[in-house]
Amino acid sequence: MQLVLKKLEVTSSRAHLIRYGILLLLVLLVTHFVSYGKLPFQEDYQFPWLNFGVISVFGFVICTANWLVFRLIEPPQNENPVQQLLVQLAINSISSMMVYVLLYFLINILIFEGTFQWYHFFKYLLVCQSIVIGYVAVLSAVRVSQPVSFPAEKREKILVTTGDQQIQINLADIAFFHYHRGVVLLQLLNNQRYITDFSSLSELEGRLPADYFFRVNRQYILHKETVHCVQKAAHKTLRVVLDPALDNGKNISISVSRYKRKDFRKWLEEDKTYPIKSL
Question: Which among 247, 192, 260 has a CA at the least distance from the CA of 220?
Answer without folding.
Answer: 260
